[in-house]
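User: quick one - fold this with zinc ion bound?
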Amino acid sequence: MIFDYPTRASHRRHGPSGYSDYERFRPWLRDEFDFRCVFCLERETWTKVVRGFEIDHVVPVSKSPDLALDYDNLVYACARCNGTKSDQSIPDPYFTLTDGSIQIDSKAKAVGATPNSRKLIHQLDLNSPLMIEWRKLMLEFERLSESKPDALERLTRLPSDLPDLRKLRPKANSQPNGIALSWKLKESSS
Ligand SMILES: [Zn+2]
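Assistant: Sure. Structure tokens for the protein plus zinc ion:
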């Protein structure tokens, strides 16, 4: 289901460090967050905006400049959510939006089961009229495509430019085994 939030492991798959520019983390974050916005689950393949996705600092740089280049403080977000989040301090969405703590109900509304997920829904304005209308539209596409496997595949497919993380050279990587679990390698082995 397109609006089922993923279950996250207790730590990230990747752990690059040592880049001097946070943009260099982009390929790692794209893969880590499955090419989707961590907040609203929009997919890269749904946007027509080149570089419509941005890198968000969970703890804003204005509050903790020392975390500006800390991979665990970076998430992948659509421009809408990154703009809405702005420099608010938020519960870490990597952990907060885990299985069961946020669900989309039959009226396309985001519902949080925990104080932190409710706080995130509020801070990211995930139930604005625009967001609800957008979700309704996408859910309608999903419903209509259930009888058409090709259409469902197109709705949920990965982008064509999957990053090859083997070719990247961060100064260090605390999770080297994560590369074997990256989408590019998973796809080439299937
Ligand atoms: Zn978003």
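One thing worth noting: Residues 37, 39-40, 42, 77-78, 80-81 surround zinc ion (CB under 6 Å).
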